[in-house]
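seq as requested:
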Amino acid sequence: MIELKLPDMTCGHCVRTVTKTVQAVDGQAKVEIDLPTHVVRIESSREREAFTKALTEEGYAPAAS
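struct tokens:
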């Protein structure tokens, strides 16, 4: 399970964009988003860095953990 905190994810539109971005990296990924805490959990066999890079390119850079 990959868990990323995305401080810039603030609304429903952000949730849709983040979900689409994750699924573009891995179409089989399970995505769980907790908007109030800005956390996205991803269940995937892909590497964390692939999601971090894609989300950063979309404007949702994960906070350092």
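The first strand starts at residue 2 and ends at 5.
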